[in-house]
Amino acid sequence: MSTTDVGWLLGIEIGGTKLQLGLGRRPGSIDHLKRATIDPARGAEGIREQIRKGFLTLRDEVGLSAGDVRAAGVGFGGPLDAETGRTETSFQVEGWTDFPLADWARENLEIPVVSVHNDADVAGLAESRLGAGVGCSPLLYLTIGSGIGGALILDGRIYRGAGRGAAEIGHLRVPGVAPDDPLDMPELEAVASGWGIGRLAGNVGKATQKRGDRWSVLEAAGAPERITAVDVADAAWKGDERSLAILDRAREALTFALCQAVALIAPRRIILGGGVSLIGEKLWFRPIRERVDAQVFRPFRGSFDIVPAALGEEVVVHGALELARDALAAS
């Protein structure tokens, strides 16, 4: 990774609810950052307008002119073709189907070099070069939030398989909520993501209501469908048995998925990021490490570690700036 100042670069994160734009010159440094909340009802066109206006505001604040930003990287929350810079779709916001995002950015932001990748891949790239994965290859990165995304980084580069992505660990099938039913094999993110934890807690809440029992989590949320992963985690820290059991289900599913990933790709390090990982060492990382160690393919035991992500909320912006740097060097 070069530490050379190549001029101003732009990093963009396009999520389902969050938009971030950052200007930087040197690796690991975001000199100017702008955050915005996405309104899904405005669709992709509304997001693009936010990007255009936000970039112009950033540029004016820094005192830059058109053409002063040499390259841009984009981390997009959905599947895409990184070679062409076209998004395939978004599962959260309408209007991104087969959209030429790289071409749009070049034209509307007046930036000649633009690189677009999936946001989980971009975050993994940032952690590999600047965060908890420095010096580790292969590196497996997971972001566990409203969904679950994954990235495989080899020698500081995103691995994209045959071209449409790789390491989509959130879509692995795992043993289901009803282990006695062999056909119940949901995707990992349906069980261990923030949405999945909340959904399972909602089902527990409905069963609690039906029995006429009391449950502090349900009483605090007001209705089963309002229970979130944050509610479950808070109650688990206080020792609530039902919340602890729900978290245990998520940890067990994640353990299963990680053991399959280790057997296939033998990573040197696994990094867990995203909001769910903020549950912390005692209730998240330690139990997962212990279970993976007990269940993983024995010859690979001890060859990897599992650590928290290091770059926080700006991780995708850091990675997008690295994308821009790479794209500029290759242009």
Automatic annotation (TrEMBL):
<dbReference type="InterPro" id="IPR000600">
    <property type="entry name" value="ROK"/>
</dbReference>
<dbReference type="InterPro" id="IPR049874">
    <property type="entry name" value="ROK_cs"/>
</dbReference>
<comment type="similarity">
    <text>Belongs to the ROK (NagC/XylR) family.</text>
</comment>
<protein>
    <submittedName>
        <fullName>ROK family protein</fullName>
    </submittedName>
</protein>
<dbReference type="Pfam" id="PF00480">
    <property type="entry name" value="ROK"/>
</dbReference>
<dbReference type="InterPro" id="IPR043129">
    <property type="entry name" value="ATPase_NBD"/>
</dbReference>
